[in-house]
Write a structure and sequence with these properties.
Shape: elongated
Largest sheet: 4 strands, mixed
Number of strands: 8
Low-confidence stretches: 123-129
Strand order of the largest sheet: 3-1-8-5
Helix content: 25-40%
Strand content: 25-35%
Oligomer: single chain
Radius of gyration: 24 Å
Distance between the termini: 12 Å
Number of helices: 2
């Protein structure tokens, strides 16, 4: 009986520790959003891109919370569009403009796409977002999975204790 209770408590502790590790990646307690900018083609032969900030304080108000991303055409390259993974709010411009001002609402990965005249940019390296939404789809939270497993372990332990007592 004591061994069974000890095993159940050990399982609960393991699940609790796993939940703590899973919560480490949550945005709670995070101070800054990270902004990463790149360009296609990656060799920069048709153009490059940059941002005025690489980190933005979470919940920064006004100009402090805004990021300006800029695409610069090079040679005969023509800017096509921005693709941005993450949640953001457009302050000025559009995804078709070379200069775009946005307010990050999560970590962002912005990519400027360039093409030579008469061609289209190679989009095979990154998936496209056909619905043109401004955010990535929400995935399930691993914390809920761990908590669900912990509840199942507690239920199984309680059932085992009940059967032993009978």
């Amino acid at each position: 009986m004591k061994k069974l209770v000890s095993v159940v408590l050990a399982l609960v502790m393991i699940f609790a520790l796993t939940a703590t590790v899973a919560a480490k990646d949550s945005p709670i307690g995070k101070d800054y959003y990270t902004i990463t900018v790149d360009y296609i083609p990656a060799d920069g032969s048709l153009g490059t891109a940059s941002s005025d900030k690489s980190k933005v304080q979470i919940d920064a108000a006004g100009e402090d919370g805004n990021v300006t991303i800029t695409a610069v055409e090079k040679g005969n390259g023509k800017f096509v569009e921005w693709t941005i993974d993450g949640e953001y709010e457009v302050i000025s411009g559009s995804l078709k403009d070379t200069v775009l001002v946005i307010k990050p609402l999560s970590d962002l990965q912005a990519t400027a796409k360039f093409a030579a005249p008469g061609t289209t940019p190679d989009s095979s390296s990154k998936p496209t977002n056909p619905d043109n939404s401004k955010s990535s789809p929400k995935t399930s939270d691993p914390l809920w999975i761990v908590l669900g497993m912990a509840v199942l372990a507690l239920g199984a332990g309680a059932l085992a204790v009940k059967k032993i007592k009978e």
